[in-house]
Design a protein that fits this description.
The complex is a heterotrimer. Chain A is an alpha/beta fold. Chain A contains ten helices and ten strands. Chain A has a single domain, classed as P-loop containing nucleotide triphosphate hydrolases (Rossmann fold). In chain A, 36% of the residues lie in helices and 25% in strands. In chain A, the strands form two sheets. In chain A, strands 6-7-8-3-9-10 form a six-stranded mixed beta sheet, with helices on both faces. In chain A, strands 2-1-4-5 form a four-stranded antiparallel beta sheet, covered by helices on one side. In chain A, helix 3 crosses helix 4, helix 3 packs parallel to helix 6 and helix 4 packs across helix 6. The two termini of chain A are 33 Å apart. The mean pLDDT of chain A is 91. Chain B has one domain: MetI-like fold, CATH 1.10.3720.10. In chain B, 77% of the residues lie in helices and 1% in strands. Chain B is globular. By secondary structure, chain C is mainly alpha-helical. Chain C folds into two domains: 43 residues; 219 residues, Orthogonal Bundle (MetI-like fold). In chain C, helix 7 runs antiparallel to helix 8 and helix 8 runs antiparallel to helix 11. Chain C starts with a helix and ends with a helix. The mean pLDDT of chain C is 91. Classes of the chains: A alpha/beta, B mainly alpha, C mainly alpha. Chains B and C meet through helix 1, helix 4, helix 5, helix 6 and helix 7 of B and helix 1, helix 3, helix 4, helix 5 and helix 6 of C.
């Protein structure tokens, strides 16, 4: 089943630096879809359109549609606050909020005026367990989150998104600053999570793209070049440019 | 629930926005009230009278030139003192002094900036004026010079603080580049760092001038309050009267709505326009330098 | 290379640097001397009675209680008006305003408010608050006048404090479903608070020490009682110091120095508090 359907999405910035050109893409539920390609290809821009974070930056034009369960999220009447609860995002650099570990987890629910302690505690535990952080921090939930290591912080960011009980999780190069062991933990967590969530990942390398993807979309200079199941695309790319990129002829 | 959230969000945005505009409203209000109370002076006093050299309101002589020259001579004197000392101190703090010394001296200088001017005026009366009288053998120590010295002291913290920030903002690589080419530390300061911080230093001087022209209490207490033309070099050793001091000293005694009252507001209007000009020049210097820096970087 | 030139270069450098050092110390030493002098001359006058008694004998004896209380009231009144207004304006500039001509206009207005001579504020307060709005010479009119004068300091400092909070916090909060105001209230304001408080105190410090803006808007030469309503005029420390050092013949010198010292303690106490808050917050900051 397709969770997200993108039709004729075109985006330009005032400076014209990075843009999306007529993107058409169907993203299935309960799978990891990776968006990969060289920097400046429009992957992050597309990711940010999916929960309307692009509202925060100045854009020149945005046309086309993005349907989430059949509802066009680019509609001006869309409730973006509710949308962002359904579609969570994890950024490249882990940004923990300046509060405790628990405070980071409950932040999203508190924004929605959830005050019941049982619900908050439940969300903390669920988020931390799903991101495989629970065992490491369960005894120090009230410590400042900044004291965690980089890898732990990034999993905390993932846990924070999960505490909101989203449907879709966007990850923008979530392991770019992490060591291989932490990266492995994050990737393992994602493989578990895809059973219940739709995951869209911008990987930080082709290897990671090949390793993690169920579906893969290759972006080059704002265009979607090729889109297929991961195991096909990385072994038998149909288009020359994809092949060149995967084999490292440019990057 | 969701509805009330967006409703309060709209309300808060409106409140915050209104407060954001308040500064503009206040500047306009100040300008409006100065115009409203000051412009009638032009109808009640002939312009030639207003621009004459005699300020003697009791006999309806409203020449404001002595007050303007008084302000100018005191400000000039103050800047002759404050500019070298202010910039010199800023260069010392930023380029020469060790870090620990700077961490002590800069707050100390800024502490002087926080000292109420009435306290400086008070010390001026008790210490500076008697000293000047005996040292220079004058009939009175309450002179333009005393005002200039005090105002210099008041302008120094402003100049040091802003000029030091500007020098500090010069990239370290400029200095390293100059030193690598064999320049001495002194040549680096004089030919590289100072010119690079030029616009910030100019802003510091402009804002120093702004503070000096607008300063009221200290200058009223020590300049002797004699509204005479101060156009000779020797005027610096004689009592004078500035525009600010005139307003402060005389506004309490005039009848509301009288010609005298309107003329005092008119002087306030002149001061307002001067401060507006000084600040716009100072900020446009900053603005220009920023755009130039952006051009260089891009 | 010519030896002479090198020699001259270093001679000039030595001379120049010594000169600058001299200039710096000539600037700093008088500052220390001023403070040391006032403290040493004023300290003997300080006593509980000086701080807590009403003036007597035409202000030539007794205490300065009404001036202290008056300055406290004026500072408080200024804070009540300028702090919420200034912080809200800073929030607008840092969090809501986009870079357009209107925002530039606001910034120019703030710069100019900061540069308007204090006595001109006094004229404005007289024209608007005392006469036009008929508040009379009162704590209310003086506080309003001081508030507008203080506003640019509070706005600039608060805006800077808000801007130092990392942009990433805003993005994260919004991405978790926060509204703009929720983000400001829960994340940005608490993080910027020490910087805002520092700016507020520095602004109020200026208000507490000013004389010219209250001359015609709220200051009383002498009052036999403490003010009991915001519509009463009041004595104030800086104006009192002006009065007793220029307007009252035969004023005991000790009372003058004592008053100056109390004023300095009041004002610099605020300054030191602000500095301590700032350095503590920097040490504790998590980003």
């Amino acid at each position: 089943m397709d969770k997200i359907v993108i039709e004729h999405l075109t985006l330009t910035y005032p400076s014209g630096t990075e843009s999306l050109k007529d993107i058409n893409l169907k993203i299935p539920a309960n799978a990891i879809t990776v968006l990969f390609g060289p920097a400046g290809g429009g992957k992050s821009s597309l990711l940010r359109c999916l929960n309307r974070l692009n509202d925060l930056v100045q854009i020149q034009t945005l046309t086309g549609s993005i349907f989430l369960d059949g509802e066009n999220i680019l509609d001006p009447k869309m409730d973006v606050i509710a949308l962002r609860r359904r579609v969570g995002i994890v950024f490249a650099r882990p940004v923990v909020l300046p509060t405790s570990i628990r405070g980071n987890l409950t932040y999203g629910l508190e924004l929605a005026n959830e005050k019941r302690k049982s619900r908050l505690d439940e969300a903390v535990e669920r988020g931390l367990k799903l991101s495989a952080l629970w065992d490491e921090v369960k005894n120090r939930l009230d410590d400042p989150a900044i004291a965690l290591s980089g890898g732990q912080q990034q999993r905390l960011c993932l846990a924070r998104v999960l505490a909101n009980q989203p449907e879709v999780i966007l990850l923008d190069e979530p392991t770019s600053g992490l060591d291989p062991i932490s990266t492995g933990k994050v990737e393992a967590a994602l493989q578990e999570l895809k059973k219940d969530y739709t995951i869209i990942l911008v990987p930080h390398s082709v290897q990671q793209a090949a390793r993690t993807s169920d579906y893969a979309a290759f972006f080059l200079q704002g265009e979607l070049v090729e889109y297929a199941q991961g195991k096909d695309l990385f072994t038998h790319p149909k288009i020359k440019r994809t092949e060149d990129y995967i084999e490292g002829r440019f990057g | 629930m969701k509805r009330s959230l967006s409703w309060s969000e709209t309300l808060i945005t409106a409140v915050v926005k209104t407060c954001g505009y308040s500064a503009v409203v206040f500047v306009l209000l100040i300008f409006f009230f100065l115009l409203r109370e000051g412009v009638p002076a032009l109808g009640e006093v002939k312009l030639s009278e207003l621009l004459s050299t005699r300020w003697y309101p009791i006999e309806n002589h409203f020449g404001i030139l002595p007050l303007i020259t008084g302000s100018i001579i005191v400000t000039l004197g103050a800047m002759l003192i404050a500019a070298p000392f202010g910039i010199g101190t800023a260069v010392f703090l930023s380029e020469i002094s060790p870090r620990w010394l700077r961490e002590i001296l800069k707050p100390l200088v800024e502490l002087l900036g926080g000292l109420p001017s009435v306290v400086l005026g008070f010390l001026g009366i008790l210490i500076l004026a008697p000293f000047l009288r005996t040292f220079l053998n004058l009939p009175t120590g309450l002179t333009a010079l005393a005002g200039a010295l005090l105002l210099g002291g008041i302008a120094v913290p402003t100049i040091v603080s802003i000029a030091e920030d500007a020098l500090d903002a010069v990239p370290q690589s400029y200095r390293e580049g100059a030193l690598a080419l064999g320049a001495t530390k002194w040549q680096t300061i004089w030919r590289v760092t100072l010119p690079a911080a030029r616009s910030g230093v100019l802003t510091a001087l402009m804002l120093g001038i702004g503070r000096t022209i607008g300063e009221t209490m200290a200058v009223m207490m020590v300049t002797g309050n004699a509204p005479v033309m101060a156009i000779k070099l020797s005027s610096i050793l004689a009592p004078v009267r500035t525009m600010t001091a005139t307003i402060a000293a005389e506004m309490g005694e005039v009848a509301n709505g009288s010609t005298y009252y309107h003329v005092l507001f008119f002087i306030g209007l002149v001061l307002f326009v001067i401060s507006l000009a000084v600040n716009i020049i100072a900020s446009s210097v900053v603005f220009r330098s920023k755009t130039r820096a952006e051009r260089v970087l891009s | 290379m010519n030896r002479r030139i090198i020699f001259d270069r270093f001679l000039i450098q030595r001379f120049g640097i010594s000169l600058l050092t001299l200039v710096a110390f000539l600037t700093v030493i008088p500052i220390i001397a001023v403070f040391a002098y006032i403290i040493s001359k004023g300290a003997p006058a300080l006593s509980w009675q000086f701080l807590s008694a009403m003036p007597s004998d035409g202000m030539r004896a007794g205490g300065i209680l009404p001036a202290i209380v008056g300055t406290f009231y004026l500072t408080l009144g200024t804070a009540i008006i300028s702090v919420p207004l200034g912080i809200a304006a800073a929030i607008y500039l840092a969090e809501y305003a986009s870079e357009n001509w209107l925002t530039r206009l606001i910034r120019i207005a703030i710069i100019n408010l900061a540069g308007i001579p204090s006595v001109v504020y006094g004229l404005f307060g007289l024209g608007l608050f005392v006469l036009f709005l008929k508040f009379g010479t009162s704590i209310l009119a003086a506080s309003l006048t001081l508030s507008i004068m203080t506003l640019p300091v509070i706005i600039s400092a608060s805006e800077e404090a808000l801007r130092t909070v990392p942009q990433a916090f805003r993005t994260v909060s919004i991405s978790l479903g926060g509204t703009r105001w929720q983000t400001i209230r829960k994340i940005i304001l608490p993080q910027a608070l020490p910087g805002i408080i520092t700016g507020v105190i520095l602004g109020l410090e200026r208000a507490a020490g000013e004389t010219a803006p209250i001359l015609f808007t709220g200051a009383a030469f002498f009052l036999p009682h403490l003010p009991n309503s915001p519509l009463d005029a009041t004595m104030a420390l800086p104006y009192h110091l002006f009065v007793i050092s220029t307007q009252v013949p035969g004023m005991p010198i000790q009372i003058q120095y004592g008053t100056a010292l109390v004023l300095i303690i009041f004002v610099l106490g605020m300054n030191v508090t602000a500095t301590i808050i700032r350095s503590r917050a920097r040490a504790r900051r998590q980003w």
